Structures are given as C-alpha cells and as structure tokens.
UniProtKB/TrEMBL annotation:
Superkingdom to which the source organism belongs: Bacteria
Keywords noted in UniProt: Hydrolase
Protein name, entry field: Hydrolase
Keyword Amino-acid biosynthesis: no
Gene: ybiV
Molecular function GO labels: hydrolase activity
Amino acid sequence: MKLPTHFKGIRLVVTDMDGTLLNPDHEVSGRFFELFDALSEKGVIFAAASGRQYNSIVSKLQPIRDRIYVIAENGGLAMFGKREIVSTPLDALTKNTILDSLSASRDIHPVLCARNNAYVTGHSPDFLRILKEYYTEFEVIENLHHFEDEVMKIAAYHFESSEKYIYPLVTDFEQSLMVKISGRHWVDISHPLAHKGFALEKIQQELGIGPEHTMVFGDYNNDLEMMSLSHYSFAMANAHPNVAKAARYSTLSNQEKGVEIILERLLQSLD
C-alpha cells in the first residue's frame, strides 16, 4: 500500500462498486456499513459511483440508500434520494448508430440502459444469467433499434475481453461520445459529459467540497476522471494499470477489503 502522511480534512468519500467496494462475490461487507455510520457521525459524506444502473447500486447499499449520493451509469445519472443532480441521455439517432457498430459481432451483447430499467434481446441465455448481477431491473425486447424512450448509455458485454473485441469497434465514437472500457467484459458508450468525474464535480460544487477534501477509490478506466478530482485518490491492488498510474495512493484489493482498511485509518484520524 502507498498511503498519505495524514488523513485529516476528508469530508467526502467516493467509491466505485465492482472491483472496489464489492468483494469478488459482489457483496458489501458488514464492516463497511459500520464504518459508514461512524464516519457519518463525524460529518463525512459518502457517494457510490458505478457503471451499474441506479437500482442495482442502491440494492447493494439498501440500508444507507437515502443517505448517500449515487452516481449511476458511469455518471450519466446522479441522485441523492429522489433528487436528480445529473442526467445526460443519448439521443435516439446516436443510439442506433452505436448499435449498428456493435452488430458487427454476434458475440457482443448490448444493453440499453434507461433511467429505471435496462433492455436487451434474448438471444443469449448465458448472458441473461450474468446480466442479473448488474441489472436488478431489465426487460427482454425484440429489437433494440425500435426502442424510443430515453437511454442513458449503451453497455456492451463480451465473455472473453471487452478491450480486445468491443473497443476496436467503437473507437471512432471517442471523437463525439464518452467511450469507456469499464471492466474486463464491459465497454460503455454515453453522452460526452456522462462520466463519473462530471457527476462528482457537480456533487463537489453542491457541497462546497474541493479535491483537497475528497477521497476516491477505484479500479478501472471509468474511474480515471474521478481520480483527477481528489487529492486522496486510491487505486485498488487489483486495479487496471492506467488507474494505478493515475492514483496518488494505493490500497489492498477488494478481496482484502482495501476500502475498509483505508476508512479505518480515516476514522482513527478523526477520533
């Protein structure tokens, strides 16, 4: 681990979910909830930031869902309770152009991520089983191109490697959209302002909290913009090399409760 010399002055803690706060079984530890309560009593504010849909995030954090900021869909949507802070949807024409590019391979599984639901086709039962972990609310429809409601982002999944098989098909969109390799199997394509950093900056402005009082935890490329907004940026031991390079500090892996270890130190510094 690479640690700062002190932990004083932290007012906002922001943590990614998969590969960071969640353990390899996609669970939040009981100790995290204990630390959340103890730090909240001392005035520390928390935010959860993920590529997951809003409903999936709050289902993992059910006991505290109304006491935290939630950055969902990689920053495409940010909420505090029922109050919307950020919403940056895709337009319909862009959505279909992206789907056309992804259709070049039948091994790519696109997901239309709407505000309260997700939409997929049903041609892969294996993918639908995986989808249930990341999307608590989803619906199988016949044709994604014909979907006309608001879409926050398109997530695409490949069973082997998103970086190898999905990303090359969508690199051209980087000139006008946000394209993120958000996990080993996932690539997310969204509005150019739909990233975790944009949403976090809005939250910081709302709270009057700057980078010098912000702590961020992350593990993958969709966390990079958040790292630049925190003087206390931590890469997990299991982080992508890009994140390890961008973060000022490091902690143990999500399997080893790396987030909780740093929060323990933060709590001790406030006693």
